[in-house]
Design goal:
The complex is a heterodimer.
Chain A: H1 4-13, H2 15-34, E1 36-45, E2 48-49, E3 55-58, E4 62-75, E5 84-88, E6 96-100, E7 109-115, H3 118-121, E8 145-154, E9 160-168, E10 177-183, E11 189-195, H4 196-206, E12 210-211, H5 216-226, E13 229-231
Chain B: H1 2-21, H2 44-55, H3 67-70, H4 118-121, H5 123-127, H6 136-144, H7 147-157, H8 164-176, H9 184-189, H10 197-209, E1 224-225, H11 241-244, E2 253-254, H12 276-283, H13 302-313, H14 318-321
Antiparallel strand pairs in B: 1-2
The chains are: A alpha+beta, B mainly alpha.
Chain lengths: 236, 336
């Protein structure tokens, strides 16, 4: 065991070597300790967090209940299968994702994409988040369902109507894979809201109640969904 | 000395067997395959597992329908008993089941190209309520509980627990071996034999009238074409349009290969024609008004129709149709 005085003596007499050792340690450090981004997705209505299978009041529509919310979250600029996460509100733990710091994060920017890119959609079978077992792959045709939102709306007069949005598509012009970016993020520990109130209000009033095939409706609804993400003020 | 020679011979044979096992043979003058063989290298154990799975009705919800139910080898891996596919509980689908051969070269699967990769193809019939009506999750559970499959998966993948990837890639491995390239036509191309005069006349007619869609050497261009057949009012099948939603794709279907066409009846996406004669008659009639055939009805006299028919018979590959390594695996007859 080396003593403190011996260590200082070693450092004084081997300044150059110590300089390089510190450099190596410094380069390695961000990869371990500050190199991770933590991101929590929080679905909201009117800014308040929501859960599945509970009723929430929406002024325009009535009472809305979400029974399923799943979507793919991908790291921007990366098309390898490892870059995908499946967010499933039924599994709370999936709403918190961690991944290595991205280059653009260093500039206080953070970007991801919502949906699955064309290349991944046409490259055969994947495991992990992209395993078709997760119920996010169409079987009657190829392609991932990038966003799945199901539930029902009970109007003020008591009528109940269910909605099913299975949004995906990998062929242009109806590719459902949208970039989402936030600028000036203050930390690498982010709370990202998903305004489902805004989305369902627009979707319910302007689109069919069931959209489950790729095409123009899925393309437009996917865009609106991706625009419903926002950075919550209470960044950790 | 004699022993050393014998050992050397055995060594060379062993080495050759390893090379043959893991190399995908591309027939001479054929294009490069589209399937990424490097991502799923074929081995004897993977192919064998895929073959067992292909013939085992365990993939269906009530254990009555296997892949082979609609894809029989003697029919060039399509079916003969129905115009449309026949699934569990005597369900009848909406399309004729396609042939299975030379799949490594195929960019799209299904008549409308709904499936874009061979590895994902099996998911469609497994989960279709009128085919196998099963869920992927339940299939994996059943296979994982089977002693036979635990052993087969271990031999093929060094893991006895089946996954989506190993299940689908095993099926692909077997299907990739279904290569048909030993017809008389192929022997003629290699200069080993010659066409008869009648076959030669038929070949000339084929090149003039059919080759633009049924392009050599695979006898398909893998494109989607509207050949002018009338829409079946009961099926109301819009073909490729259902996938792309583009009006130009209305009533277009993937051009099928003509290899082994003698055995791949019934014909067309809805199996409406039972014989080759009917098909040739259709193209020679004025009802053929598709994009490429529009205004180009085949004006064939009776003799030319026979010549064309005779040429099409040269695409029969009996080594493919009766190859035992593609057939029903006897292991399925034994109890676990």
């Amino acid at each position: 065991m080396i003593s403190k005085p011996e260590l200082f003596y070693f450092m004084r007499t081997n300044k150059l070597l110590c300089f390089f050792l510190f450099q190596i340690a410094f380069m390695a450090l961000p990869l371990k300790s500050i190199g991770q981004v933590k991101l929590s997705f929080v679905p909201t209505i009117g800014g308040a967090e929501i859960s599945l299978d509970k009723e929430y009041l929406l002024k325009e529509l009535g009472k809305v209940t979400f029974t399923k919310l799943k979507f793919y979250f991908g790291l921007a600029g990366d098309t390898s299968s490892k870059s995908y996460f499946l967010i499933d509100l039924e599994k709370k733990s999936s709403c918190l994702v961690e991944f290595p710091l991205q280059k653009n994060s260093l500039n206080n920017e953070f970007a991801f994409w919502c949906g699955v890119d064309s290349f991944t959609n046409t490259s055969g079978v994947y495991m992990g988040a992209l395993d078709p077992l997760n119920g996010m792959y169409w079987t009657w045709q190829s392609g991932y369902i990038g966003i799945k939102l199901e539930g029902q709306i009970r109007s003020m007069n008591g009528d109940s109507v269910s909605f099913e949005y299975h949004l995906g598509g990998y062929q242009n012009p109806f590719l459902v894979c949208y970039p989402v970016a936030f600028k000036n993020t203050k930390s690498s520990d982010l709370l990202v809201g998903l305004d489902l109130g805004r989305f369902i209000s627009f979707a319910y009033q302007n689109f069919p109640k069931k959209v489950m095939t790729p095409g123009q409706d899925a393309y437009l609804l996917g865009k609106i969904f991706s625009e419903s993400f926002y950075l919550l003020d209470n960044e950790k | 000395m004699k022993n050393r020679g014998l050992l050397l011979f055995i060594g060379v044979v062993c080495l050759m067997s390893f090379i043959v096992k893991d190399t995908y043979q591309i027939p001479k003058a054929w294009p490069e395959p589209i399937y990424p063989i490097g991502k799923n290298e074929l081995t004897i154990n993977k192919v064998y597992l895929g073959r067992i799975l292909f013939y085992d009705p365990i993939l269906s919800v009530n254990h009555t329908v296997s892949c082979a139910s609609c894809h029989s080898q003697f029919n060039a891996f399509t079916h003969a008993d129905h115009a449309l596919s026949h699934g569990i509980y005597d369900s009848i689908g909406t399309r004729n089941s396609p042939t299975l051969m030379n799949l490594a070269w195929q960019p799209y699967f299904m008549w409308d190209g709904a499936i874009n990769h061979l590895d994902m193809q099996a998911l469609a019939p497994i989960s279709h309520p009128k085919e196998m009506g099963e869920s992927l999750n339940h299939v994996l559970q059943k296979l994982g509980a089977s002693k036979r499959y635990k052993s087969l998966f271990y031999k093929a993948w060094k893991d006895s627990i089946p996954t989506t990837e190993t299940l689908l890639k095993s099926l692909s491995s077997f299907m990739l071996t279904l290569v048909s390239n030993q017809s008389k036509y192929d022997s003629v191309q290699l200069g080993l034999v010659a066409f008869t005069d009648q076959e030669q006349r038929g070949y000339a007619l084929f090149k003039k009238h059919c080759n633009s869609c049924h392009t050599e050497p695979l006898f398909t261009n893998y494109q989607f074409e509207a050949n002018g057949i009338k829409v079946n009012a009961h099926l109301n099948d819009f073909g490729r349009y259902a996938i792309t939603h583009h009006p130009k794709d209305s009533f277009k279907f993937k051009t099928p290969t003509l290899r082994n066409v003698e055995y791949s009846f019934p014909y067309m996406h809805d199996g409406r024609f039972e014989s080759l004669n009917e098909v040739i008659q259709f193209y020679a009639s004025s009802s053929s008004i598709g994009d490429k055939t529009k205004g180009r009805t085949l004006h064939l006299d009776a003799k030319e129709k026979v010549d064309l028919h005779v040429f099409l018979l040269t695409l029969t590959d009996k080594q493919f149709l009766f190859n035992r390594s593609y057939g029903y695996p006897m292991e399925l007859n034994t109890k676990e």
